[in-house]
Design goal:
The protein has one domain: P-loop containing nucleotide triphosphate hydrolases (Rossmann fold), CATH 3.40.50.300. The chain is globular and about 45 Å long. It contains 7 helices and 10 strands. The chain is an alpha/beta fold. The longest helix has 17 residues. Strands 1, 2, 4, 5, 6, 7, 8 and 9 form an 8-stranded mixed sheet that branches. A two-stranded antiparallel ribbon has the order 3-10.
């Protein structure tokens, strides 16, 4: 394997039903309920925005396929619920995750303050080599902003988080870029022998995971963004 920077990695999105892959990574999406986790992942993966989204209970499972340089990479994205009553359940999904996307809403100070809890829980339960991205979502609500971009940047620097950006599930700002940047971080660190990925042995595994997600996932309607 050769060392590469993020800028040297090329990305080509592939169809959702693309069957074959060489390498896969597990990504977990965490943060308070109502910050737009499901809306953001749906916008990034399916280019869909549903204003009245159903609150996730348990988790949702999505896949996103990419050609990165000459490697076909499948991202297994686990979108978790944010309700406090289910947090003990969520911690079970930290294990074996390669990267966590920690999301707060720029118009919700409590969700930003709670990133400290999520980060602490993540570091206690996840693998030591897990990579972390911090996302300030709902940047389309500028007139309701209570958390500045500088506050997000400072939190990222103070806690040695790998990447920070602001996004909007509604307008699509940085939605796909968020997933692409996560993929680049993982692929770079895999090439540099800093993390491990799952080498494809059985391409039917995704359908089994999807079925598991369907059994566990229960929803109630609420406004997402």
């Amino acid at each position: 394997m050769t060392s590469e920077s993020l800028e040297e990695i090329t990305i080509e999105p592939l169809p959702e039903d693309y069957a074959q892959y060489d390498l896969s990574f597990k990504i977990i999406v965490i943060g308070d309920s109502g910050v737009g986790k499901s809306c953001l992942t749906s916008k990034a993966v399916k280019n869909m925005f549903i204003e009245f989204y159903q609150a996730t209970i348990g988790f949702e499972f999505l896949t996103y396929n990419l050609k990165m340089n000459d490697t076909i990479v499948k991202l297994q994205i686990w979108d978790t619920c944010g309700q406090e009553v289910y947090r003990s359940l969520i911690s079970n999904f930290y294990r074996n995750s390669s990267l966590a996307i920690l999301i707060y809403a720029i118009n919700n100070k409590e969700s930003f303050n709670n990133t400290e809890y999520w980060l602490k829980d993540l570091k206690n339960e996840a693998n030591n080599d897990i990579r972390i991205m911090l996302i300030g979502n709902k940047c389309d609500l500028e007139n309701e902003r209570v958390i500045s971009k500088d506050e997000g940047e400072n939190f990222k620097d103070e806690n040695n988080i790998d990447c920070f950006m602001e996004t909007s599930a509604k307008t699509g700002v940085n939605a796909k870029n968020c997933i692409h940047e996560a993929a680049k971080i993982l692929y770079r660190d895999y090439l540099n022998n800093k993390i491990k990925g799952s080498i494809s042995e059985n391409n039917n595994n995704d359908s089994k995971l999807k079925n598991l997600g369907d059994k566990i996932n229960v929803k109630g309607t609420r406004k997402c963004c």
